[in-house]
Amino acid sequence: xxxxxxxxxxxxxxxxxxxxxxxxxxxxxxxxxxxxxxxxxxxxxxxxxxxxxxxxxxxxxxxxxxxxxxxxxxxxxxxxxxxxxxxxxxxxxxxxxxxxxx
Amino acid sequence: xxxxxxxxxxxxxxxxxxxxxxxxxxxxxxxxxxxxxxxxxxxxxxxxxxxxxxxxxxxxxxxxxxxxxxxxxxxxxxxxxxxxxxxxxxxxxxxxxxxxxxxxxxxxxxxxxxxxxxxxxxxxxxxxxxxxxxxxxxxxxxxxxxxxxxxxxxxxxxxxxxxxx
Lengths: 102, 165
Description:
The complex is a heterodimer of chains A (102) and B (165).
Chain A: H1 6-26, H2 30-55, H3 59-89
Helix pairs in contact in A: 1-2, 2-3
Chain B: H1 2-22, H2 26-46, H3 50-75, H4 87-111, H5 128-136, H6 140-160
Helix pairs in contact in B: 1-2, 2-3
């Protein structure tokens, strides 16, 4: 009785990360873009935990925990920014929020 | 058994992640993201990270996603319009994604060919006790810096959410 190879976990992590990148690049809604970032952070966390298992150390878990904390802080500030942008511009489309481009 | 559990929850995670990207309505994306996070918590458990699995459920699925759903409700965000998508992105996007995944899988399989098989229960150090010990001895400084980061985030969120801005 044996489990799956560790590489499968890493490939799953790569798949989730690539999907997060795709969502980040292709979507127009600022909320969905933000959710894609969360997806990428989760994928990296899975890699951390998988390598932690491979090396039999708890350090990877600590790093994943820090990533979680930073993601929570980032979600609070990012969503506050989204609410402010919506209040000022009445739009959630990132293509219409371009005043710093010119 | 481990292989079956891994495959079930990996497939759930990938299907939900695809759903996050392709759904046009943000609330559907948010619910799919909760599915991804829940299945990832099970995979953490399989890897022996009990504390992280619980933290994943509580922090991500509990706190962050509730915040997302709350903001979606508050802003009354509707479905995203499909106009303005470039032809190049539509034609090249999916093949390039597949190519990136194939490349990543190839390199992972090449450089980690003989990785250990993951056995549930083989790694028992992921308890709250061990992580707490590492956090408060080896990682004490980053831990304290994190508290300052959270304080800054609280102040920033309060300042941004004020009426006159």
